[in-house]
Amino acid sequence: MRQSALPSVVRPCPDCPGTRHRPSGKIRVNASGKLLDVWLLLSCAGCDRTSKVPVHERVHVSALEPARLVAYENNDPAVVRELTIDASLAARNAYRLDWSGSWELETPAPTPRHALDALDDPSPLRVVVGFELPAPVRVERLLMRGLGLSRTAVRRMVRDGRIRLPLAPEAKARRDFAFTVHGPGAASAEA
Ligand SMILES: [Zn+2]
């Protein structure tokens, strides 16, 4: 799972009917004496209106690591990314993240489909799915795309024990997991 874009922040825009916001790439820091306010700045995808997401409110300057403060002041892209995908920041500020279009699945060549077809080896094929960003994606959908199989074929292979998953096919994964694919004889061999 490669990142192709950051997720959108979904919340109402006061100026237009749009709800999708993108990080503007900027972080604003305001100091009042020793107290700091830090915001992540967003742009409305519909009208470009800038809005702010509070990251720290009235926090004492000594409570932030100096390197962190420098990163905020320099609009560090890694920190913008980290804040944008932060589920707890989203929860705290009552908005939703829309991950559509934020990722693409990269499969090794030759595709696992070829390995699947040739799978007569008694030792199973172990497949690791690595997530570059925590986009929640249904496991079944990953398998369909990654293995080049239909939903029906995926479900059948799971049912037959040829694909063994650490989580349900309908579950959404958002972090690395591994599964195994077994040869056609696997199910009958165990029965
Ligand atoms: Zn707007």
UniProtKB/TrEMBL annotation:
InterPro entries: DUF1062 (IPR009412). It comes from the Bacteria. It holds the Pfam family DUF1062. This is DUF1062 domain-containing protein. It comes from Kitasatospora paracochleata.
